[in-house]
Write a structure and sequence with these properties.
Length: about 750
């Protein structure tokens, strides 16, 4: 449909019908008994004199039959015949689930991330979905915050590349909504990942310099990749709730970033303007949000009950409503809904090859899990060894993370299944060993657990321990599958104690006391503090939540059929007191020096080192990689020139493997004090055992620019140190360059 036809539709709508396009409701409003996922507090909406058949969009109707029935009935009963648009949280999988985003970021393989998103989009497309509320690209430096699992971690380079890859994967090339695509919705604008003290929905307070330099670039990257929608955030930013923040949403997002797609609230965030004390009542909230540029009101009655009276009273300019409705119509048009409201549902090529999903799922598992420790080459395991696979995650399918509500649990490969496929099953012994935690009550979310509830029942801990001990005694080696329950992270999953639950620590200590090698495999949605248990493991593989097929990749690594290559996208603190901890920390006038640890007046703690347990970028392999011979083609360069820095990387191990070469820059003197280092580029490379490859990173002037205290992007002439490193604390290989 052409633009003038859309304008014609817009002109033909009554004010009620226009407002309806800006309202989003869940499935049960249209059809009783619709399977739906509540991701927010369930309150009565209080719709007044509202015609359901004016509504523009529906949220989280994930069952294809329900979706078809709703669209059908809607189109029969609506006067204007504009199809509903269906939007859902299809965050990193629909029925097939890939690893959680934080794990995906640990692959540093943005091509793979894009391919994964493409598969997710195809699967959801065939189920009639139109829009996914993904990617979430909130940069995060605080693992207490439950939603770290959903984010790409702490780094700007990783966040921007992740954002681009996801949008391209969901929407197709150049964001053009190609065949079998979904429209993507980047969220949560802005800075939702920085709540004070890591507490969910908490306030965010930061300088414009920080905001522009660290937190905004990933959303911007999604907008530049032509993302179709943006979602507001629940938090306040410097006192003003994001959903009603005109500067953020109009000045920055619309005018500066040039975003011309649909801007939707987060779940009921518009009504929360009242709770924030920023709007007097719902009517005031409607006006504020509309003026701030919010097009769609997700799951409240604020727009439906109040926009009309605001316009009629002359308190709201009708052109704001017209502009918002036009954007919604444009999105429907871009998706082809006017031509086919059942987009995807009737596509005859209905199924994606399962083999393709398995292949990517296994590859993701192999590349996202991070080998944190491997003393005396405990891993890989010998094929002949008798292995006790113990722990609450040994046979547990609840390993997809909180944002996987439509997961097909029947296909999930448990660790047991994955290991039985690659080891001789006769050599494997299994035991649950421990509860995940001793009290699930505080975790909540029981409404959405459905038929998973059996997995969240507390069992007799002593009996579990005794049984595990008896089984482990028969084995040569113990693989301990530990972790957090899926609902300990995700939305509303903030914690002050991010150590492993004490019942599982008890299991670990019991297993350790048997004197056999203990290998940990940890399933979780956040970096845990491992300081109290790390020494008890001979080897430790951090699996995150690996999704439907990830455990096959994990089993391949345990068996030595694959070589670990994941690298941390987030720093691992030693204890909670170090949080927030991140690699690109700012400099201090009194930096700690290794030689003066006993000296009081430096920037440090008196009861703990400044160092994390594992730094950003860290990840072991069964091979070792030696870096030498760092070079540059320009030790002096001008603004217009590209410079190349290269290094020789040798695989000195016995196994072929991949690693992630990381290029960091240190800016010596600037208009503001700059971070100690910043990641500018990564290269994931495969190197055969014994082989050497030269790895190069090309840098342009953009890599040396930063936002100054006025929020302006600038660069300064002078000296920079460039590091080619294996992780953020590896400063062994560096070279000086000078911008002239
Ligand atoms: C979350 C969003 C999500 C929305 C819809 C909210 O609670 O913050 O990320 O997309 O619910 O389910």
């Amino acid at each position: 449909m052409k633009h003038n036809q859309l304008m014609h539709i817009l002109d033909s709508l009554t004010l009620d019908q226009k407002i309806g396009q800006l309202v989003q409701l869940s499935g049960e409003f249209f059809k009783e008994g619709t399977q739906t996922t509540e991701t927010g507090p369930s309150t009565k909406l209080g719709l007044e004199n509202y015609n359901i058949y004016n509504t523009g969009s529906a949220i989280n109707v994930t069952n294809a039959q329900d979706l078809r029935a709703i669209q059908n009935e809607y189109l029969e009963k609506t006067e204007h015949k504009i199809p509903l648009i269906f939007m859902a949280d299809i965050i990193y999988g629909f029925e097939t689930i890939f690893p959680i985003p934080l794990a995906q970021a640990c692959t540093f393989d943005f091509e793979l991330i894009q391919q994964g998103a493409k598969i997710v989009a195809e699967e959801a497309y065939y189920a009639g979905q139109h829009v996914t509320f993904s990617p979430m690209v909130d940069l995060v430096r605080d693992p207490r915050w439950g939603r770290v699992m959903e984010s790409p971690g702490e780094d700007v380079y990783v966040g921007t590349n992740f954002a681009r890859a996801m949008v391209n994967g969901f929407q197709g090339k150049d964001g053009k909504l190609g065949p079998k695509s979904l429209a993507a919705c980047v969220k949560h604008f802005a800075a939702y990942g920085a709540p004070v003290a890591g507490r969910e929905y908490g306030a965010v307070d930061m300088s414009e310099q920080q905001l522009r330099e660290v937190y905004l670039p990933s959303y911007r990257a999604a907008v530049d990749a032509n993302v179709k929608l943006v979602m507001t955030a629940f938090n306040t930013l410097n006192g003003i709730p994001a959903t009603g923040n005109k500067w953020l949403n109009r000045t920055l997002l619309r005018n500066e970033f040039g975003f011309d797609g649909v801007f939707i609230t987060d779940y009921a965030a518009i009504k929360e303007l009242v709770q924030h004390g920023y709007a007097e009542d719902d009517c005031d909230a409607a006006r504020i949000a509309m003026e701030a540029g919010v097009d769609i009101d997700m799951k409240t009655s604020v727009y439906s009950n109040h926009l009309k009276s605001l316009v009629e009273a002359g308190q709201l300019d009708i052109t704001l409503i017209d502009e918002a409705v036009l954007r919604v119509l444009e999105l429907k048009n871009d998706l082809g809904l006017f031509e086919n409201p059942y987009r995807g549902l009737d596509d005859p090529n209905s199924q994606i090859d399962e083999g393709k999903k398995i292949e990517k799922g296994v590859e993701f598992g192999e590349k996202s899990a991070v080998l944190l420790k491997n003393d005396n080459q405990t891993l890989p395991l010998s094929a002949a060894a008798k292995i006790a696979v113990i722990g609450p995650f040994a046979e547990n399918p609840a390993i997809v993370g909180m944002w996987a509500f439509s997961a097909d649990y029947h296909r999930i490969v448990t660790l047991r299944k994955g290991m039985e496929d690659v080891f001789n099953p006769e050599n494997l012994i299994f035991a649950e060993g421990s509860n995940i935690m001793m009290d699930y009550n505080r975790v909540g979310f029981s409404d959405n657990i459905g038929n998973l509830s059996a997995l969240f029942q507390v069992k007799d801990q002593e009996q579990l321990l005794d049984d595990a001990e008896a089984k482990a005694k028969e084995a040569d080696i113990i693989v301990l599958a530990l972790g957090e329950s899926m609902f300990e992270s995700g939305e509303g999953g903030s914690k002050t104690n991010i150590h492993l639950a004490s019942c599982q620590v008890e299991l670990l200590k019991r297993m350790k006391s048997l004197g056999k090698p203990v290998i940990g495999v940890i399933y979780t949605g956040r970096p845990l503090c491992l300081d109290n248990i790390i020494d008890d493991f001979d080897a430790l593989l951090y699996a995150w939540y690996p999704g439907t097929y990830g455990n096959s990749g994990i089993a391949n690594m345990l068996a030595g059929k694959a070589n670990p290559s994941g690298h941390l996208a987030m720093t691992f603190p030693k204890n909670e007191g170090q949080i927030p901890i991140y690699y690109n920390t700012y400099r201090s006038g009194r930096p700690i020096r290794s030689e003066d640890v006993a000296y009081r007046f430096t920037s440090r703690y008196i009861d703990q080192t400044n160092q994390p347990l594992f730094p950003f970028g860290f990840g072991l392999s069964y091979s070792e990689f030696r870096y030498d011979n760092i070079k540059t083609d320009h030790s002096e360069f001008k603004e217009s020139e590209l410079i190349t820095v290269s290094i020789d990387v040798t695989n000195t191990g016995l196994m072929d493997g991949e690693t992630v070469v990381q290029c960091y820059v240190h800016d010596h003197i600037a208009q503001i004090s700059r971070p100690v280092i910043e990641l500018k580029q990564t290269k994931r490379i495969f190197i055969k055992a014994g082989e050497t490859k030269t790895v190069s990173c090309g840098l342009s002037i953009d890599d040396f620019k930063y936002h100054n205290d006025k929020g302006t992007k600038v660069y300064d002439k002078g000296q920079f140190t460039i590091y080619m490193a294996q992780h953020a604390e590896d400063r062994a290989n560096h070279i000086e360059v000078r911008l002239v």
